[in-house]
Amino acid sequence: MATANRAALSRLLQASVGQVAPAIAVQVRQGGEIIHDETAGCVADTLFDLASLTKLWTVTAALRLAAAGKLTLDQPVSDWLPDFTGERPIRPYENPLQPGEVVRVTQNDGTVDAGQVRLRQLMIHTSGLPAWRPIYLQPAGERRRFVLDTFFSYPTGTRVVYSDLGLILLAWALEQAAGQPLAAAIARLVTEPLRQDTTAYGPITPERTVPTEFCRWRGRRIRGEVHDENAYSLDGVAGHAGLFAAVGDVAELGQAWLDVLQGQSDFLPVELAREAIRLQAEDGPVRRGLGWALWSPSPESASHPLSQEAFGHTGFTGTSLYIDPARELVIACLTNEVYNGRENRLIGAFRLALHETVCEEIGN
Description:
Beta-lactamase
């Protein structure tokens, strides 16, 4: 990578650290080598709330169990969670960003048989489940039941609706298949084999982490505990959110997937990894694999500057991980952009600029 090009990425990070987020950490790898590793507004090895990047660890752990014959992708969720069964009504769900409002996915007022939903459909977000529900507002002893008894928001398989509830259920099924609690299963199946020393569920010593949003529900700015209210209410350990990590560990997860796809690792069977990044569901510009978001034709998508083989994921706090097999490229970016609140967010434009700059750096 030319010095001038490295300077372009550094300028982007330094210009963004005050405007976009108080803290930014980026690691770029190409061909298995770290070609850019920089922090702005924080020190190296600072831990960030990964938010929905947690889903990648959950799905990777589930796929490792599938590879070991402990579960199958197309078995019903109810095989592992017997209470997740029976006919459920289709209803609008609560809008997480506009309290008091609801989101209606379909005009269909029928029902869905929860017992027919498959693990695969949780991973590709076609289960019919609502995107979100206010778990944290339920009494502590009723939160699990609230999820297991949830209504649906559209007929299974007819739309792609990114669902936190789906990954919460996947994690509970994973626990049953693994025979151990989620945090221990994630450690055994993913973080320990990949030597991800910083990746863990919270709470984390505040001094090791960057702060996120001021939480009105908790009445304080969040630091060292998960930002996501629902994950927090589930004791901070959930399939959709809750992990903290430094940027190198996030890049290592991307590298592990790239190595498998290139036949350089047996962390996962290559056929299963290819299945995970195959187009499984599509809804407008949204294209999904197993857990992963695939390259999108939308010019505003963070994946758009990358090749059409690219896949990745984002997190609400301002995090992202993208892998581009055609370029042998891994781009991990952690920020605490949500520190500035949930309105007038700049993280989308920043991710796009980051990926454009990286592609310019490597010359293609």
